[in-house]
Amino acid sequence: MRVEPYLLVIFTAVAESASFADAARRLGVSRSAVSQAFIRLEKDLDMSLAVRTTHSCILTAAGEELYARVAGPMGEITDAVIATTNKAGPSGSLRILVSSAAARMLTGPLVAGFCKAYPDIRLDITVSDAGMNLVSAGFDAGIRIGDRREEGLTALPIGGDLKMMAAASPRFLGKNGRPKHPRDLPRYACIGLKTLSGPPPYLWEFVDQGEALSVIVEPRIMTSDPRLMLRAALADSGIAFGFEKTFRAHIKSGELFSLLDDYMKSHPGFTLYYPTTRYMPPKLRAFLKHLPASSAA
User: Fold this and answer.
1) What values do phi and psi take at 265, rounded to 5?
2) What is the DSSP letter of 296?
3) Which numeric CATH code is attached to 92-160+269-290?
4) How many CB atoms lie within 10 A of CB 43?
5) What is the dihedral of CA 159, 164, 166, 168, to 10 degrees?
C-alpha cells in the first residue's frame, strides 16, 4: 500500500496539535484541506485514526500507533526542510502576543534591531491582557510576566527576576511622612497597579526577616497602566508600588524617593511561551535569541 507523504505530514500536525484548525494554522493551509487529507488517509488505510469533537480531535489506538511509527521519520524530514530553509535565513510572519506589563521590554531599539537583523521576517505584535488562547488565536508565541506553566505550552524565562519598589514624591512624603514598615501602608494614600484579566491586587507582597509578608492595601487610585501610575506618583498623589525599572530614572533624578527597601522582594521576570512541539520554527528561534539574556540564546 502506498500512502502519499503529504498525508502523513498533515496527520503528524493534527496529532501534535490535537485540532484540525490548529494544524491548519501551523501548516498554513485551510482547515478544509486538513480535514479532507485526514479523511483520505483514513480511507487509504481503512481505519479510524481519530475521534473528532467540535474543538479538538483525539487519536484512536490505531492513530496513536501510527503516530508512534511516523513521528521519528517525519521529524527527520522536518529537520532536512528546516536546514534547507535556514540557508536563506528565517522568514515569514511572526505573531507575538504580549501582556501590557511585558510590552515594556520590547523597546524601540530591540524591535528595530530584530527587523534589521532579519529583514525577511514580518513582526506582528498584539498587546493584550484579555487572556486569549495562544494556539487558537493563531499566535506563534507570547510574552508575559511570571512563570505560570500551562499544558501544551513551553515556557522559557528571559531577562531575570524583577525587583519590586515602593516610591513617592518628596512633596508627598514631606506632607505625610515616610512609612517605616509595610504594615504602615494602609494609613497612606496608595496607587495600585492592576491587570485586566484579574481582580485588583489588594495584597502588596514584601519580605520581613526572610518571611513572606502580605499587606492589605486599598489604593486611592487603581490603574492597569504603569505609566499612569508613575505620573500619579510624580504628581504627589500617593505611594506607588510596582517594578523597580518603572521608577529607576525618577529615583536617580530625585523626583521620587524609594521606600521600604529592606522589605522588597523579587518576582519571576518575563517568560516567552509557545506551543510545545518537537521543533521550534526558525523565525521564533531567531526572535528568542534576539531577546535580552535569553535562556536559549
Assistant:
1) -125, 165
2) T
3) 3.40.190.10
4) 9
5) 0
DSSP 8-state secondary structure symbol assigned to residue 271: E
Residue pair 149/155 in contact by the 8 Å Cβ criterion: yes
Q: Does pTM top 0.90 for this prediction? A: no
* Closest C-alpha among 197, 200, 183, 203 to residue 263: 183
Cα–Cα distance between 133 and 55 in angstroms, integer?
A: 13
Q: Identify the CATH assignment for 5-86 out of 1.10.10.10, 3.30.1330.30, 3.40.50.2000, 3.40.50.10540.
A: 1.10.10.10
**CA-CA distance, 105 to 37, in Å (whole number)?**
42
Phi/psi of residue 276, nearest 5 degrees: -75, 115
CA distance 28 to 289: 24
pLDDT higher at 52 or 206: 206
The per-residue pLDDT for range 214-249, each reduced to its tens digit, is 999 989 998 878 889 999 999 999 999 988 988 999
- The hierarchical CATH code for the domain 162-265 is 3.40.190.290
CA–CA gap between residue 75 and residue 278 (Å, rounded):
8
